[in-house]
Amino acid sequence: MVSEEDLKAVLAELHQLRNRVPQLTGALAAGVDGLVVAHDTPGVDPEGLAALTAAALGVAVRVADATANGGFRELLVRGERGYVATYAAGRTAVLTLLAQDRVNVGRLHLEGRRSGARIGELLDAADAAAREARRAGRPLGAVSPTPPTRTRTTRTPRAASADARTATDS
Predict the structure, then answer these.
(1) Residue 12: pLDDT band with limits 50, 70, 90
(2) 53 vs 97: CA distance, rounded Å
(3) Which of 68, 93, 113, 162 has its CA 20 to 30 A from that of 123?
(4) Residue-wise over 83-107: b if at least 16 C-beta within 10 A, else e?
(5) How many distinct helices (H) and strands (E) make up the chain?
(6) pLDDT, tens digit, for every residue of 45-96?
(7) 128 contacts: CB under 8 Å, gap ≥ 6
(8) Residue 162 has pLDDT above 70, yes or no
(9) Which of 122, 95, 120 has the alpha carbon at shortest distance from 109?
(10) Is the dihedral of CA 142, 91, 36, 49 positive or negative?
């Protein structure tokens, strides 16, 4: 779970990005599952955009895999009136930017990649901290104080064949 402080930092990054690239009309950070993390998308439904981003991401990842071009980095869609650019943001998130048609695409990529990396660092660190907290918060009784007992069976030569493998043998 992402803390309120981390969410504010992601939102601040989105606002700064929109200030650095004035032709941006919106910015959204979302999980790869299509859930909104933070957004600055006036006039655009952030939940719908996050869901569509997740669907497009799924296709883009499969295309990258099918062509042996490595893991997903970015996706650019150009419409008649502007661009939609999606960038990887760590292991579990993406950054989607909406831009006017007159945007400098090189600048869009430069700033989008930088912001995606910053947001990814924030969210990956928050995810790692949450996982560690869950691990540390397990009840002590969850681990048995005595080792499990094993029953011994006598193997015949036929039972010792390759067909007699168990889960612990592999």
Answers:
(1) very high
(2) 10
(3) 68
(4) bbbbbbbbeebbbbbbbeeebeeee
(5) 3, 5
(6) 999 999 999 999 999 999 999 999 999 999 999 999 999 999 999 999 999 9
(7) none
(8) no
(9) 95
(10) negative
Residue 112: CB partners within 8 Å, gap ≥ 6?
17, 74, 85, 87, 95, 97
User: Distance (Å, rounded) from C-alpha 68 to C-alpha 42?
Assistant: 37
Phi first, then psi, for residue 76 (nearest 5°) are -125, 130
Distance CA 118, CA 112 (A): 10
Integer Cα distance of 29 and 139 in angstroms? 34
Please report where in the chains the tokens 């933070």 appear, as a residue.
38
**In this structure, are residues 9 and 66 in contact, taking their beta carbons and an 8 Å threshold?**
no
